[in-house]
Amino acid sequence: MSRSATIISVLVFLLLVLLGFWLSQNLVKKEIILPVGLQGEAARNPLLAAERFLTTMGVPTRPIDSIKDMQEKPRPGDVLLISSDRQTLGERHSQALLDWVKAGGHLVVTVAHVVPEEYEKQAEDGPLLVRVRVRDPLLDALGLSVRYLLDKDQDERVSRARLPGHGKELQVQFNPAFFLHGARRGDFVIDTGQGIALLQRRLGRGRITVLSGMHFLEFRRLGEYDHARFLYALVENARHVWLMSSNDMPPLWRWLWDHAREAVIAAALLLLLWLWSKLPRFGPLQQQPPPVRRRIMEHIEANGHFLWKQRQLARLVEAVREALEHTALHRHPAWAGMSAEEKVAHIAQLGGLGIDEARQLLGLVPNEPVSRHHREFTRLIEKLERIRKRL
Fold first, then answer.
1. Cα 221 from Cα 309, distance rounded (Å)
2. What is d(CA 234, CA 214) in angstroms, rounded to the nearest whole number?
3. pLDDT beyond 70 at 284
4. d(Cα 9, Cα 231) in Å, to the nearest integer?
5. Is 172 helix (H, G, I), strand (E, B) or coil?
């Protein structure tokens, strides 16, 4: 190695050493925990925190996906809390819930949070309170309607709420945009100053509680303000609490798998078989066999079978009689000059037949139909062929 190359190598080495020393003095190793959000069941079930909280407080709690698929129905004294909009329940299930409430159940529901787009555009002009016209059989049966506050500057306010039988006021963040309308005398209501956020009504031996929203009971918001205490006060003394966070229509693939699993499996197998039939085959193709040239007699036999199946017996008999006539003309030139009776006598003599039978064979009996019986038809053809060969 030359002297200049040695000097350059030493300088590069020293620079690398200095760079490593500077990095060791200026870089600090530090662990940072990044939030990844909710995972698993906590992300799928917004009432999971409420379920765990009530279970910890000694309240038997069970989550359900759909009222239609419940194997065990709620009993009087239970609480059924539905945080979804109930848009798929329909009138029949809504009436069944009201009947259960009258028998002693406690139903807790929220309003449908559906707002037409034209209302959203009107909010830019300033606050506006409008009625939300959404099909809700449950609220319609109770005579309740929903009001929506259109205000682009609205914020969630903390309201003070006191439930019946509880003297302490609780701080709760109700939905600031939706309010109930249609309260009757005897109803318990919580008014935030802008409108009714909670309405509780006695029905028979039970009661129904309608909230303007349940977002404050979902996910981590249950731990804010007095939301957990409010939930516990709402379901206190319940024999059992049922929590349903979604009753939306499941995806098509899931509905098919739950209700028509055998049909889905059969369709998948048929699809696999079809794909297998379309796969390219390996190896040389087999040669197509050369077409077989059929004999003329095979075509004649096939034609006869076809006429037999089509019940064209008269045509078959007529063809045999024409063959007999053609043979007679070829072998006996005088045949053409014979009268019908002379032909009958000649045929009777050749076949050893009576005059009437010979006349029948030659088809000289007027309006006589051809027998459709298999044996009689075969016997007629045999006699004609036997006489033709004797000519």
1. 84
2. 12
3. yes
4. 75
5. strand
Question: For the chain, how many residues are written?
Answer: 391
**pLDDT tens-digit profile of 51-100?**
888 888 888 888 877 666 565 677 888 888 888 777 667 777 788 888 88
Q: Do 147 and 222 fall into the same domain?
A: yes
| Residues near 186 by beta carbon (within 8 Å), at least 6 away in sequence | 201, 202
Residue 81 structural domain:
41-114+124-248
Gap between the Cα atoms of 75 and 241, Å rounded: 10
Residue 161 in 3-state DSSP? strand
Within 39-156, where are the H helices? Answer: 41-44, 48-56, 90-102, 117-122, 137-142
Residues 6+ apart with CB under 8 A from 85: 110, 111, 112, 113, 114
To 10 degrees, what angle do helices 374-390 and 340-351 make?
Answer: 90
Exposure b/e, 199-237, CB count within 10 A at least 16 = b = bbbebeebbbbbbbbbbbbbbebbeebbbbebbbbbbee
As for how many domains the chain has, the answer is 2
Query: 242 and 131 in one domain?
Result: yes
DSSP letter, residue 27: -
Q: How far is CA 44 from CA 40, 91, 120, 232, in A?
A: 7, 27, 28, 23
CB neighbours of residue 266 within 10 Å = 11
Is there a single domain that holds both residue 76 and residue 207? yes
Specify the range with the lowest mean pLDDT, choosing from 37-41, 42-46, 270-274. 37-41
Query: Which two tokens mark 128?
Result: 């506006």
Instruction: Give the pairing type, strands 106-110 and 128-132.
Output: unpaired
Query: Where does the pLDDT of residue 120 fall: very low under 50, low under 70, confident under 90, or very high at 90 and above?
Result: low
Could you tell me which residues are beta bridge partners of residue 180?
A: 146, 196
To the question of pTM greater than 0.70 for the whole model, the response is no
CA atoms within 13 A on the CB side of 84: 16
**236 and 304 belong to one structural domain:** no
Residue type for position 66: S
Q: How far apart are alpha carbons 214 and 100 in whole angstroms? A: 22
